[in-house]
Amino acid sequence: MSLFRREMTEFSDLERELRRERPVPSSELLGRLKRDRSPDDRHWARPLRARLALAGGLTALLLGALAVVGGLGQAASGGRVALEQVKDVVSAPFKNPKQSPGTHGTATTTTGAPSGSLSSLDPPPGTPPGQDQYKPGCGRGDPNEPHTGPPGNHNGFPGRCPPSAPPPVTPLP
Amino acid sequence: MVRRDPLARLDKLIPALYAYVAYRLGDGPDADDVTSDTIERALRYRESYDSRKGDPMAWLIGIARNCISDLVSARQRLHDPRAADPESSPQDVELETGRRLTLRGAVARLDDRERELLALRYGADLTARQIGAILGLRKNAVEVALHRALARLRDELAREPSGELRPSTSRAVRF
Predict the structure, then answer these.
(1) Interface contact flag, B143 A21, Cβ < 8 Å
(2) Measured between CB atoms, which of A18, A23, A41 is closest to B27?
(3) Record: contact A34-B102, CB cut-off 8 A
(4) B18:A25 CB<8 A
């Protein structure tokens, strides 16, 4: 290898000459070739930084326009609502049925019901909330059955629908 | 993916490309035509450039080689006497014009393979590895072939009566 290197250094003067005598294009040819670059050259010639700056500027402009008409606030509140709903859906099935009685029936606690009756309003442990709430006529399906009404106004029921109450027979007028 | 423009530095590419072409074909209108043709094709097909396959100069050299090959084929079809022996065409041009011996004249008398190697190395200023990628050779093979080409070039220069390079060279080659 060293022999090869030594031999190559023999030619170093020749190499220098080959580089020095390198043919050079005429200025006319050089100018013509530069001029003849195609018209669609602009998008190539534009540097990457300028293209990124343009994209960033347009994005900022769009966000500014949205902010003026309240789009950002709306989007944020929409996202918040969606998040709450997702949280409700996800967390509901995992509620511990052995929780302390005071943790259930949040609707009744917020409606101003007497605090002494809170424990009596709680459903029996293990009852899913969907079975005994929001059903007209205590879930009997009778349109004539009076609704239990808003929370706190039980219309004679002791806070909750009786678990095994027989369906009342009310004659239609 | 961000595309890279292979012709972004055309100012630097054109001289190297021209030097390669001129070492292959001889300085003159042919070199001008092939250089123009190469740049035109490069502009047309630059969307196809893949930076993973090589740098822009190697890509341009690949196009230029095709252009040179097209030129030689076209001359053969037209029965151009210069195309009968394409390797000797630069030599004939040299003889016709009666130019005195120069380094380029000696290069022109080398065979096509040797001229190609010298053009790639000293015209386009490519490394042995890049030349190997273009010619499908290993780096060591390129270095050995370059060494032989330089030895042949020295022999060619020694055959001339003047026996030395142009006075413009600060350090003349001795034989």
Answers:
(1) no
(2) A23
(3) no
(4) yes
pLDDT values of chain A reduced to their tens digit, one per residue, 173 residues: 455 555 566 788 888 888 888 888 888 888 888 877 655 565 565 667 788 899 999 999 999 988 888 888 888 889 999 999 888 887 765 555 555 444 444 444 444 444 445 555 566 666 666 665 555 555 555 556 555 555 655 555 555 556 655 555 566 66
**Whole-prediction pTM value?**
0.53
Instruction: Assess B40–A contact: CB distance below 8 Å, yes or no.
Output: yes
**Per-residue confidence (pLDDT) for residue A56, from 0 to 100:** 94
pLDDT on residue B79: 63
In eight-state DSSP terms, residue B99 is P
Q: Which residue of B has its CA nearest to A11?
A: B150
Judge: A17–B173 Cβ closer than 8 Å, yes or no.
Answer: yes
ipTM: 0.70
* Residue carrying structure tokens 């053009």: B119
The Cα–Cα gap between B120 and B134 comes to: 9
For B:153-172, CB contacts with A below 8 A are: 153-154, 165-166, 169, 171
Give the nearest chain B residue to A43 (CA atoms): B5
- Average pLDDT (B55-70) is 91
Helix (H, G, I), strand (E, B) or coil at A168: coil
B79 near B89, Cβ under 8 Å?
no
> Are B43 and A41 within 8 A, CB to CB?
yes
Contacts of B125 in chain A (CB under 8 A): 19
Q: Can you spell out the DSSP letters for A12-39?
A: HHHHHHHHHT-----HHHHHHHHHT--G
| Structural domains in chain B plus CATH codes | 1-89 (1.10.1740), 92-175 (1.10.10.10)
Backbone angles phi, psi at A161, to 5 degrees: -65, 140
Q: List the structure tokens of A133.
A: 């709430």
Tell if the CB–CB gap between B19 and A22 is shorter than 8 Å. yes
C-alpha pair distances (Å), A79 with each of A17, A53, A85, A91, A165: 72, 29, 10, 18, 44
Residue A110: per-residue pLDDT: 42
